[in-house]
Amino acid sequence: MIPTKKTQKITSICVLFLIALLSTKVAAQTTTVITENPNDSRVITTGVPFILIASDARAAAMGDMGVATSVDTYSQQWNPSKYAFSEAKSGFGISYTPYLSKLVNDIFLGNVTYFNRLNERSAFAVSLKYFSLGEIELRADEFSQELIEKPNELTFDASYSLRL
């Protein structure tokens, strides 16, 4: 097959488009933090970072790897589609993880998960994850009165999986 001028033009446009696409910088999350002191590195720039913390012992022991493992109660965080392949009809799990326990003793992650296989091809699951950040002392400056806050974060997840 001899390339025509039209196919050569389309090929060159595709190559230029591919080069332009690969040479651009793409960021999934960009944040701009405006603080009084731009050199302050204590500012957390991500939203709900506790979601990345493994709440089950198996995934935590394997270095936060839970996607390519067999189905268990805590698959809701890693890959809820595994519930459709479960041999058990249903499952319920509760976990408590003291987080950074060598530094402080009041930060923890709690998780409650339930799944139910409806039939041989489908399942649903729900989970509730609670992260307590402990007590945090807030001050406007070094001379102001301290304010003790107890922040926490919470997620509620629901999933439905269907084996095709």
Write a concise synopsis of the structure shown:
The longest helix has 19 residues. This protein is 17% helix and 29% strand.
Structure, described:
The strands form 2 sheets. The chain has a 4-stranded antiparallel β-sheet with strand order 1-2-3-6, with no helix packed on it. It has a two-stranded antiparallel ribbon with strand order 4-5. The longest helix is centred in the N-terminal third of the chain and has 19 residues, at 5-23. By secondary structure, the protein is an alpha+beta fold. Helix content is 17%, strand content 29%.
What's the assembly state of these chains? Answer: single chain
Please count the helical segments: 3
* SS-derived structural category: alpha+beta
Rg estimate, integer Å: 24 Å
Task: Please state how the strands of the largest beta sheet are arranged side by side.
Answer: 1-2-3-6
Q: How much beta, percentage-wise?
A: 25-35%
**What string, H for helix and E for strand, traces the elements in order?**
HHHEEEEEE
Number of strands: 6
Assign a percent range to the helix content: 10-25%
Main sheet attributes: strand count, strand direction, barrel closure:
4 strands, antiparallel
Average pLDDT, all residues: 82
* Beginning-to-end CA distance, first to last residue: 41 Å
Shape: flat
Question: pLDDT below 50 for ≥5 consecutive residues: which ranges?
Answer: none
